[in-house]
Amino acid sequence: RIAYVNGRYVRHADAAVNVEDRGYQFADGVYEVCEVARGYIVDMKRHLDRLDRSLRALSIAWPMHRRAFELVLREVVNRNGVLNGLVYLQVTRGVAPRDFLFPAQAAPAVVITARKVDPAIAARRAETGIKVITVPENRWDRVDIKSVGLLPNVLAKQAAKEAGAQEAWFVDTDGTVKEGGSSNAWIVTADGRLVTRPAEHGILRGITRTTLLEVAAGLGLAVEERGFTVAEAKAAREAFISSATTIAMPVVEIDGSPIANGHPGSMVLSLRAAFFDVAEKCQA
Ligand code: PMP
């Protein structure tokens, strides 16, 4: 495997960053994970738009011209022979002697990796669905920035695993579901309306979420962008999560309560099926 580190393509096993990288010391950096499908980086433009937003929010400069970034992303995918899988990119504020203040000199540091993932694994998972647990929101209020500071997400997802579940939903003090540890949260109401939290309200604006909203519009589905409570989710006709790695993945249990008959819903499965047609149009 090959990784891209600060201007060089290196063997993944030999790839390394400086011990004074601020990403390592302060989580002072941002990242993106893009799905690779049939050799294409799905929704690359949207991922780079979001990267731009995250970088601006933290006053980190682009490490290279955006066009060059696109080429390098594709190059890492190609050099690793990834047809289906993921490409991960991370930009940190750079390397400087440890100090809280922004360094005057440091150039942003970049790491890009890619790996193959067998699409059959997610496809099988979608046939049975996943379980989620709920946990109290304990993150800062700028989770709209895709920062590498993911410790609450790590702990929440580990708690989910230990409870026999695959995702944890962060719940706000008002009882509404915010999002998953690495996904956005959705339900389908009894009358067949898709519901997902507005992206302005304390969540990451998922790229998959945005594309699924377009897919839903194309399928003529009714959508409500509003908060929903855990109780509403447990009583919903369907529930599911979205992310670049799961696309749209049925949720069949929340905190041990089965959703509907405990099997994946039909709406999430049709959204999942329709996703790639729309995503591929976003290549240009
Ligand atoms: N919320 C959080 C906290 C995430 O980490 C992710 C995955 N990056 C998402 C939502 C989903 O975003 P996307 O669809 O862009 O993968």
From TrEMBL:
Main EC class the enzyme belongs to: transferase
InterPro entries: Aminotrans_IV, Aminotransferase-like, BCAT-like_C, BCAT-like_N, Class-IV_PLP-Dep_Aminotrnsfr
Cofactor list: pyridoxal 5'-phosphate
Keywords: Amino-acid biosynthesis, Aminotransferase, Branched-chain amino acid biosynthesis, Pyridoxal phosphate, Transferase
Catalytic activity reported: L-leucine + 2-oxoglutarate = 4-methyl-2-oxopentanoate + L-glutamate; L-isoleucine + 2-oxoglutarate = (S)-3-methyl-2-oxopentanoate + L-glutamate; L-valine + 2-oxoglutarate = 3-methyl-2-oxobutanoate + L-glutamate
Domain of life according to the entry: Bacteria
Record keyword Cytoplasm present: no
Enzyme Commission (EC) number: 2.6.1.42
Pfam families named among the record's database cross-references: Aminotran_4
Pathway stated in the Swiss-Prot or TrEMBL entry: Amino-acid biosynthesis; L-valine biosynthesis; L-valine from pyruvate: step 4/4; Amino-acid biosynthesis; L-leucine biosynthesis; L-leucine from 3-methyl-2-oxobutanoate: step 4/4; Amino-acid biosynthesis; L-isoleucine biosynthesis; L-isoleucine from 2-oxobutanoate: step 4/4
One MF term in the entry's GO annotations: L-isoleucine-2-oxoglutarate transaminase activity
GO cellular component annotations of the record: cytosol
GO BP annotations, alphabetical order: amino acid biosynthetic process; branched-chain amino acid biosynthetic process
Keyword flag Amino-acid biosynthesis: yes
Family: Belongs to the class-IV pyridoxal-phosphate-dependent aminotransferase family.
UniProt cross-references to PANTHER family, sorted A to Z: AMINO-ACID AMINOTRANSFERASE, AMINODEOXYCHORISMATE LYASE
Role of this protein: Acts on leucine, isoleucine and valine.
Name of the featured protein: Probable branched-chain-amino-acid aminotransferase
Species the sequence originates in: Aquibium carbonis
